[in-house]
């Protein structure tokens, strides 16, 4: 039996079905099948899937493999198959009712998990026996019932008599059975859930089996009555009920009565579910409790439609309409008070709901398979009546109800053939209510709000309305008016597809007739929006040009106050966009709309200082135009002459009136249009390059190119002149200015002839000169602009072929300026807001990233690569730090120059290097003003110091030496430095301290490399040292401060700079001149620190005799005149280092220069400071006696001169001090002592 059940799922339309001879389980209602895959709508045992309905309609054997034996078991008793129903029909129906009673008694048992298995088996057994019996009745009628007609002989055998009475008996028994089971709606509440045992088998309670047995009975009674009629072809009277009740009960009346009752039951079941359904969920909620109810609906549809085609009986829709109409009647007016349908709270909404759901069942064929292509019978007549009720103002239908009704109507439009009448009915309502927003106070619209934000959103709404498949959430996302537009679109599209343009003309006439001057003047803002939504939809589904023309005519009727309404501009722009999408010429619309834009731009310019309200109103309109025109260009497949009209001089006026945020919008529009034009030009260029282009196509492409050129010229004319005038201002956002300028540069590459005459003959070079190479442009603009340009290979290639040999050099120059001026923006703030901030905060992150990108691109230039290659230094393909990259570049240029051998190459390299720098002092000048930026000063001094040192050999040439002089004068020797009474700002002093060694080393190299010895350069070097030795001397000689003195650092870090001796010599000269040449007994300030500096100089360098000759007199003077112990100690240490240095320098012999210094020292100070001199010489004698021995004659003579001067005879104390000194000189000293004693002069 199970095999037969499985086989039944594969029934086809073939009339010849070969099945096995095994007993096949009769079909029945079942919703317990597994449908996890979602592919099956009905059980394999169902009347649809098993093919039972098909066999019924085709009048075939109901069960060709069943009841083939001589006997059949029914209700546990064996019966003769061919005679049982004739002989024992009343007994069998009695047993049937008894089994029904047994099943009903099972409902009283408690249905827990322990008993469910037993109860399920008992109930299922009863149900199968009952279903089998009814199927046996069907088979008996088809196979064994003889047709009795008027010409048949009078039955003589008792069996023949019974057989002749059997049809009437069946009508009576079926009627009695229906009375016994009652209505479906009267069954107790049923739990449709199932228990699942450990073997995953579903076990159902008795109530489930009872409901499904009732469904089987109701349907099988209809089948039996239908088969009786088909078999006998005559009316069959039920004798029993006719005799008892006097009713003319026939098989036809019983069929109709039962059919009506069954539909009433199904409606009642649906009503129970509808009461729990929200309007927003009406179409997503199923009105059938289970798939068996749904199957019963489908079975009724097929059976009743079949009977209506082959007999005079009514169609399914007529049956249903007749019953639904009773819902609108009052109880006292009902035609059939016995019809068991409860009065619904919302009969209109329920009627829409039930019809929409039932209409969807028409898609199922006779096997229960959904067929989307199946022709579905419509019920438009009744729906039109419902629609009239829905829009009847007197009935007070609310928006929330109307949405649900129209959503149902829209769904029916999908199912059925087009119907223009429903559009007419709805338009009568909405034409009178256009000013309504159709909103629900408690339900905000989720999707398309009734306040349209842009022309694109208007078109998007139209597009959604025209979609074949609508959103299930349409109730919440759209108003009833929007749903009406969906219905209108679907009806027009379907009707025109089936019947050509005639339906459109009908609808157009009805809609157009509702709009005249008075009606247009009555429209509010919301009404205008609804007006545009309607006509945009009509344009989308029909003749766009005809609709647009009519709209323009109607807009002329509006009140003057509405002409400036934003919705008017949005609506007109929406039509312009629709033209573009359909690739139509926008000439008429563009001319009118662009004229209005020009007028509003002029008002905007005049009112820029007026109140903000009017300005905001004007900007709203202008931004609608700007956004719409951008969309027009971005979506246009090709440009027409009319596109140029959209870019009129209104933009010139608008740009002058815009503030920063507004400028961003306009420049964003400009960039989008420029990008689109360049893209279209490249496509045209590729098409023209193809070899197989015929003359007609070529002419068409040339015309398109001329149109493009016209639009490009308009952009140059109305936008570029403004950008050019705003290069140095901060009114235009710098990033947008750079982006727009770069786009114009690329446009000049693609279409040079479109550029204005003042940029010709080389517009690319001219634009780059304006925005990339001009030193007065903001560095933020230059960095971003050049990054865009260098990214474009076509632009770089074009510049290489234009003869602009300085393209790369000028770009490098701008890059250098951008790096040096990275902190310049922090200086341009109001005085009361200016705060000196640290380097990490001083540069905007965006600019730093842009500068890094420019650096990365610049290092890919062939000229830069060549420099690094010749310098043989590490090349950074992707430098991340612009300042480090600049240091590397400076060093690479210096090394490259040093490696050159030919004089011509060196000269060319000097010229190129100076071209790289340009007016470099102008770049750094802002940092040196009144406002101090620590980060900017540090960057400036460091970079310029690296430049001076790295390019020392270049600065040694006559071409570059002037720049070096200016750098030193500007950075190290400004007027504030020369004015000793003025203190330098601390940030500047710090920057100089960190970078001064670089300058000193570089200048020293220049002094050594200079082609002609330059006295001025040496003077500059001396002036720098003179200014900064004292400035950076610490207050105390102790601590680490002295070791970090920049002058000493210049000497200490000069291992890589061999020709450093001029620096040391200059330092020594400056110390002697500035500190030790004081007149009289004056001593320099911070003497201890100065002596410590000289001592450090002696320790860190090899000091020669000539330098000792310059420094020693000052040191000796300090020893004589100073009284501070610290000064004396440091002076003594200096003296010791210098004497030792002279010993090394004279190779063991006393240096004549040293002796000369001491001799002059004795002569200058011997008369007054004899004791101090003897003490100093004792220190010298301890180091080198020979120096003192050579001075004995001078010392002795000084002693005698002193005694003679004072005229007091021998100075015993002085002679003792002198004798002490002589005692340190050995025999020579003893001899001198004796000579001095023996001398009686």
TrEMBL record:
A Pfam entry, by short name: MMS22L_C
GO CC terms: cytosol; FACT complex; MCM complex; nuclear replication fork; site of double-strand break
Single Gene Ontology MF annotation: single-stranded DNA binding
Localization per Swiss-Prot or TrEMBL: Chromosome; Nucleus
GO BP, one annotated term: protein localization to chromatin
Alphabetized UniProt keyword annotations: Chromatin regulator, Chromosome, DNA damage, DNA repair, Nucleus
The name this protein goes by in its record: Protein MMS22-like
């Amino acid at each position: 039996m199970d095999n037969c059940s499985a086989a039944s799922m594969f029934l086809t339309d073939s009339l010849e079905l070969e099945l096995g001879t095994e007993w096949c389980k009769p079909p029945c209602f079942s919703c317990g099948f597994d449908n996890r895959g979602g592919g099956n709508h009905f059980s394999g045992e169902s009347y649809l899937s098993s093919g039972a309905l098909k066999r019924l309609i085709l009048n075939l054997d109901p069960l060709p493999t069943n009841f083939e034996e001589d006997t059949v078991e029914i209700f546990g008793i064996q019966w003769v198959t061919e005679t049982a129903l004739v002989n024992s029909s009343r007994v069998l129906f009695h047993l049937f009712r008894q089994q029904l009673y047994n099943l009903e008694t099972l409902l009283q048992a408690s249905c827990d998990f322990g008993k469910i298995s037993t109860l399920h088996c008992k109930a299922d057994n009863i149900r199968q026996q009952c279903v089998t019996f009814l199927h046996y009745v069907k088979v008996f009628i088809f196979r064994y019932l003889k047709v009795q007609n008027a010409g048949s002989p009078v039955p003589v055998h008792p069996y023949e008599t019974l057989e002749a009475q059997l049809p009437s008996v069946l009508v009576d028994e079926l009627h009695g059975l229906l009375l016994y089971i009652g209505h479906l709606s009267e069954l107790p509440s049923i739990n449709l859930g199932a228990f699942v045992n450990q073997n995953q088998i579903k076990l159902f309670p008795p109530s489930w089996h009872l409901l499904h047995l009732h469904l089987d009975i109701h349907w099988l009674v209809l089948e039996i009555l239908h088969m009786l009629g088909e078999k006998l072809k005559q009316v069959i009277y039920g004798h029993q009920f006719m005799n008892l009740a006097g009713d003319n009960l026939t098989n036809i009346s019983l069929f109709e009565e039962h059919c009506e009752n069954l539909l009433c039951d199904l409606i009642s079941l649906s009503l129970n579910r509808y009461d729990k359904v929200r309007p927003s969920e009406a179409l997503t909620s199923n009105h059938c409790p289970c798939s068996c109810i749904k199957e019963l609906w489908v079975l009724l549809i097929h059976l009743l439609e079949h009977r209506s085609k082959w007999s005079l009986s009514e169609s399914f829709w007529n049956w249903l309409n007749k019953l639904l109409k009773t819902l609108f009647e009052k109880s006292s007016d009902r035609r059939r008070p016995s019809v068991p349908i409860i009065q619904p709270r919302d009969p209109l909404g329920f009627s829409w709901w039930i019809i929409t759901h039932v209409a969807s069942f028409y898609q199922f064929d006779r096997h229960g398979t959904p067929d989307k292509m199946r022709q579905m019978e419509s019920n438009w007549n009744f729906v039109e009546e419902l629609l009239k009720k829905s829009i009847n103002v007197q009935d007070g239908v609310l928006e929330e109800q109307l949405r649900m009704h129209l959503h149902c109507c829209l769904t029916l439009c999908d199912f059925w053939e087009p119907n223009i009448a429903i559009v007419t009915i709805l338009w009568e309502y909405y034409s009178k209510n256009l000013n309504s927003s159709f909103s629900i106070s408690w339900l905000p619209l989720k999707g398309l709000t009734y306040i349209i934000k842009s022309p694109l959103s208007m078109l998007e709404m139209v597009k959604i309305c025209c979609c074949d498949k609508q959103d299930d959430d349409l109730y919440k996302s759209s108003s009833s008016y929007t749903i009406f537009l969906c219905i209108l679109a679907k009806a027009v599209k379907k009707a025109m597809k089936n019947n050509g343009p005639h339906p459109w003309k009908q609808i157009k006439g009805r809609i157009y007739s509702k709009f005249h001057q008075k009606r247009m003047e009555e429209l509010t803002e919301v009404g205008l929006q609804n007006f545009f939504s309607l006509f945009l939809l009509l344009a989308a589904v029909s003749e766009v040009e005809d609709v647009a023309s009519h709209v323009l005519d109607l807009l002329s009727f509006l009140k003057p106050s509405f002409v400036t309404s934003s919705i008017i501009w949005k609506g007109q722009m929406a039509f312009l966009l629709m033209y573009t999408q359909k690739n139509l010429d926008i000439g008429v619309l563009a001319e009118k709309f662009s004229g209005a834009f020009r007028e509003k731009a002029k008002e905007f310019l005049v009112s820029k200082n007026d109140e903000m309200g009017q300005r905001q109103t004007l900007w709203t309109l202008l931004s609608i135009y700007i956004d719409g025109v951008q969309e027009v260009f971005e979506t246009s497949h090709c440009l027409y002459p009319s596109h140029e009209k959209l870019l009129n001089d209104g933009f010139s006026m608008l740009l002058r009136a815009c503030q920063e945020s507004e400028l961003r919008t306009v420049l964003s529009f400009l960039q989008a249009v420029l990008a689109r034009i360049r893209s279209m030009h490249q496509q045209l260029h590729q098409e023209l390059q193809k070899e197989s282009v015929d003359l007609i196509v070529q002419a068409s492409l040339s015309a398109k190119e001329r149109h493009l050129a016209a639009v490009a010229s308009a952009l140059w004319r109305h936008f570029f002149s403004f950008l050019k005038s705003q290069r140095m201002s901060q009114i235009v956002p710098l990033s947008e200015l750079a982006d727009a300028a770069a786009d114009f540069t690329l446009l000049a590459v693609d279409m040079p002839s479109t550029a204005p005459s003042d940029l010709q003959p080389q517009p690319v070079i001219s634009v780059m000169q304006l925005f990339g190479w001009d030193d007065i442009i903001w560095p933020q603009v230059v960095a971003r602009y050049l990054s865009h340009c260098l990214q474009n290979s076509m632009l770089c290639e074009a510049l290489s072929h234009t003869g602009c040999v300085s393209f790369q050099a000028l770009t490098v120059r701008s890059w250098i300026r951008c790096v040096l001026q990275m902190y310049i923006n922090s200086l341009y703030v109001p005085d009361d807001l200016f705060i000196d901030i640290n380097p990490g905060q001083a540069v905007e992150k965006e600019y730093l990233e842009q500068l890094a990108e420019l650096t990365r691109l610049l290092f890919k230039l062939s000229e830069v690569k060549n420099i690094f290659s010749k310098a043989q230094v590490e090349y950074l393909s992707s430098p991340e730090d612009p300042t480090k990259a600049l240091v590397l570049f400076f060093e690479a240029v210096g090394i490259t120059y040093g490696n050159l051998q030919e004089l011509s190459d060196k000269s060319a390299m000097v010229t190129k290097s100076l071209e790289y720098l340009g007016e470099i002092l102008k770049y750094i000048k802002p940092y040196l003003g009144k406002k101090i930026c620590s980060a900017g000063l540090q960057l400036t001094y460091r970079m310029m110091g690296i430049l001076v040192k790295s390019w020392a050999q270049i600065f040694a040439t006559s071409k570059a030496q002037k720049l070096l002089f200016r750098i030193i004068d500007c950075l190290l020797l400004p007027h504030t430095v020369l004015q000793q009474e003025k203190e330098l700002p601390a940030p500047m002093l710090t920057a100089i301290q960190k970078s001064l060694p670089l300058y000193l080393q570089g200048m020293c190299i220049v002094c050594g490399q200079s082609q002609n010895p330059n006295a001025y350069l040496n003077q500059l070097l001396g002036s720098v040292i003179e200014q900064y030795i004292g400035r950076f001397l610490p207050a105390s000689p102790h601590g680490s401060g002295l070791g970090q003195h920049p002058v000493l650092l210049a000497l200490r870090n000069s291992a890589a700079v061999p020709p450093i001796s001029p620096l040391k010599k200059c330092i020594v000269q400056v110390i002697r001149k500035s500190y030790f040449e004081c007149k009289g007994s004056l001593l320099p300030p911070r003497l201890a620190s100065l002596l410590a500096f000289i001592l450090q100089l002696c320790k860190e360098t090899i000091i020669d005799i000539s330098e000792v000759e310059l420094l020693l007199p000052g040191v000796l003077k300090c020893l004589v005149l100073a009284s501070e112990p610290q000064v004396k100690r440091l002076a003594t240490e200096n003296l010791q280092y210098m004497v030792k240095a002279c010993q090394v320098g004279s190779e063991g012999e006393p240096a004549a220069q040293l002796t000369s210094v001491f001799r002059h020292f004795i002569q200058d100070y011997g008369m007054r400071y004899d004791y101090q001199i003897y003490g100093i010489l004792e220190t010298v004698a301890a180091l080198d006696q020979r120096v003192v021995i050579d001075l004995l004659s001078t010392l002795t003579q000084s002693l005698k001169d002193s005694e003679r001067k004072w005229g007091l005879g021998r100075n015993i104390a002085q002679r003792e001090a002198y004798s002490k000194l002589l005692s340190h000189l050995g025999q020579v000293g003893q001899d001198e002592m004796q000579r001095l004693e023996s001398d009686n002069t």
